[in-house]
Amino acid sequence: MIYTDDCSEARDRKGDMFGVRRVGESLLRYAPEGAGAVADVDAFALGEEQADDLTVLVIEYRGDL
């Protein structure tokens, strides 16, 4: 899984950042889908305007096809 920096830099109303630890926990919770991690960031930010995009890329290797 790969994510853009604004996932960890998203801020809530108090100005606190979501942080790398929360991103990691969220990615593990929603693996292999990954999209739920963006929902966690959105819920944390509570509608606050963000400075950048929120992108999560999930790649799954299934061996020889």
Q: How would you describe this structure to a colleague?
A:
This protein is mainly α and 65 residues long. It has one domain (2-57). It is built from three helices and two strands, in the order E-H-H-H-E. It is elongated and about 50 Å long. The protein starts with a strand and ends in an 8-residue tail after the last strand.
List the helices and strands and how they pair.
Layout: E1 2-3, H1 5-9, H2 19-30, H3 35-45, E2 56-57
Antiparallel strand pairs: 1-2
What distinguishing features does this structure have?
mainly alpha, two-stranded antiparallel sheet, 6% strand, single chain, 65 residues
Mean of residue pLDDT values: 86
The number of domains is 1
The side-by-side strand order for the widest beta sheet comes to 1-2
Helical content stands at 40-55%
Q: How many β strands by DSSP? A: 2
Q: What is the C-alpha radius of gyration, as a whole number of Å?
A: 13 Å
**Helical run tally:** 3
Structural class, from helix and strand content?
Answer: mainly alpha
| Largest β-sheet summary | 2 strands, antiparallel
Oligomer: single chain
Question: How much beta, percentage-wise?
Answer: 5-15%
In N-to-C order, the SSE pattern is EHHHE
